[in-house]
Amino acid sequence: MACNPVRDRSDKNHSDGNMSKQTIVEYATRLGDDALILGHRLSEWCSNGPFLEEDIATINTSLDYIGRARMFLSYAAELEGAGRTEDDLAYTRDCRDFKNLLINELPRGDFAFTTVRQFLVDAFNLFFFEALVGSTDTQLAAIAAKSVKESRYHLRRSRDWMLRLGDGTEESHRRTQTALDDLWGYTDELFHMDPLESELLDTGVAVDRAAVRLRWEPLVTELIDAATLQLPQPYTLPGGGRQGVHTEHLGHLLAELQFVQRAYPGLQW
Amino acid sequence: MALIPVVEKTVQTNADKSVDTSVDTSLTAAGGGPAVTAEEVLRRRRRQDPDTAPLWEILDQVCDPEIPVLSIWDLGVLRDIERTGEHITVTITPTYSGCPAMTTITEDVEAALARAGFAEVSVKLTLAPAWTTDWISAAGREKMRAYGIAPPVQRSHTVACPQCGSDDTGLISEFGSTACKALYRCNQCLEPFDYFKCL
Ligand SMILES: [Zn+2]
Question: Does A145 touch chain B (CB under 8 A)?
C-alpha cells in the first residue's frame, strides 16, 4: 500500500511489558466498542428496513460489525488475562466503561440518517483498517486484514445509497442533507488522537488518525458533491466517547443490548 | 482432487497474469475463476501427508451449515490438520468476521473425528492469512453452481446465471441471504439467484 499511516517501529514492539499490554487491551476494547455499538444500531433495522433486500443488507452489515467486535473484544479479554470473556465485556460493563466514539451510538434515525452515518464511518473504517493491517501487533493486524475487505463492500453499498438518496427525490435529498448536517459535528472525534493512541502509534501498534483524515476528506467531499449535497459548515461537537462520557442514548441502547444477561446472569442457550 | 504441480510464481491479479508468462495457464479456472496460488498448492499437498491423509478424508464429510453441498475443504475454511501422537489439531478460518457458522463447524469437526474414534481433538481458529474466495476449490465452485449459487468471479467478469447460464444478469442487492452472498436477477430466465461474492 502506498500510504500507510502506521509507523514501522517493530523494534520497540511490546518492550514495556505490562504497561504496554494494558494500553493494547484498552485500544482493542475501544475498537471493539466502536464495532459493537454501531453493529447494534444497525441490527435495530431488522424487520424495519425500507424493503426486504435492504433490510437483509443492513442486517448483514450489522453481522460483520458484530463479528468484528467479537474479534477485538475477545482479544482484549484474552490479553487482559483476568478471566473475562468477550461476553463479559459486551454484557456486563456499564455506560462509563464503554469507549466507543459518539457517532456510533446516535439513534438510528431515518434511513437517510443511517445511510449517511454508514457512509462516513465505512469510509473511515476502510482507511483506518488498511493502516491497521501494518500494525506491529499481529493479532490486531489479522483482524484488520479481515475487516478491510468487508469495509470495502460496506462502503460500496453506502456510497451507492448516498448517490441515490442525495440525487433522488426532493424529500430524499432534504432528509439526506439534514442527516449530513446533523452528523458532521461528530466526525471530528474519529480523527482525535489522545495520549494512549499516540503512545501506541510510537510503538507501531496504533493507527495515525490524522493520516486517515487525509484520505477520508477528499473521498467524502467528492462523494457529497456527486450526490448533489452541500458540504456542511465545519463545526465540532464535544467528544468524550474514549473517556466513557456518552450521549444520553448509550444507556438506552445498553438497556436493550444487555437486558438478558442483566436479568439472568450467565444465561446460555 | 487432482494434484496440481507447484508453480514458481504466485498469481493473484489479472494484471499479473497478462505479463507473467511463467504461469501454467491450466491452473487458471475458466469463467473468471481464480488462479491457484502457491500457498493453495501447498495446502492441497498437505492432504498427501501419510500421517494425516485419512483425517482429511474424514473431514471431507463436514459441510458448511449454510451451503450444505460444500465441504469445509471445498470452501477453504479447513486450513490444516496436525497430529502429535494421539492428539489432533485442526485449524479452521472464518469466511466473514461475523460468520455465525464457526461454532457449528467446530462442533461438527469434533463430532466427525469422534465418530471415527479420535477423542483428543482441538480446533484452532486462525484469522491470518485472511480467508479469500480464491480458496474455494474448482470442485466446490461447480457444486455451488449446481446448488443454484453463482460462484465468485473477478470483478471484470460478468456473473452468469446458475440456472440457465446467461450472462444477461443484474445486481439487486449487495447482500443476499447471508453476508457472503449478493442478490442477482437473471434477465433471461427471470429467476433471482444468490451470487457468492468475491472477497
Ligand atoms: Zn437465468
Answer: yes
Residue B97 to chain A, least CA–CA distance (Å)? 5
Rounded to the nearest integer, the mean pLDDT of chain A is: 93
* pLDDT tops 70 at residue B192: yes
| CB of A141 closer than 8 Å to CB of A132 | yes
Q: pLDDT under 70 in chain A at which residues?
A: 1-17
CATH topology for A18-263 is: Ferritin (1.20.1260)
- Among partner residues B129, B173, B179, which is closest to A64 by beta-carbon distance? B179
Tell me the CA distances in angstroms from A95 to A2, A30, A50, A108, A257, one per residue in order.
39, 13, 31, 18, 12
The model's pTM is 0.83
Chain A residues touching residue B130 (CB < 8 angstroms) = 142, 145-146, 149
Considering chain B, what is the average pLDDT of its residues?
A: 82
Q: What pLDDT, on the 0 to 100 scale, is given for residue A4? A: 41
Domains of chain B in sequence order: 10-134 (3.30.300.130), 148-196 (no CATH)
Distance, in Å, from the CA atom of A62 to the CA atom of B108, rounded to the nearest integer, reads 26
Instruction: Give exposure, A68-83, as e/b (b: 16+ Cβ within 10 Å).
Output: bbbbbbbbbbebbeee
CB contact under 8 A, B97 and A56: no
Domain residue spans in chain A?
18-263
This model of the complex carries an ipTM of 0.72
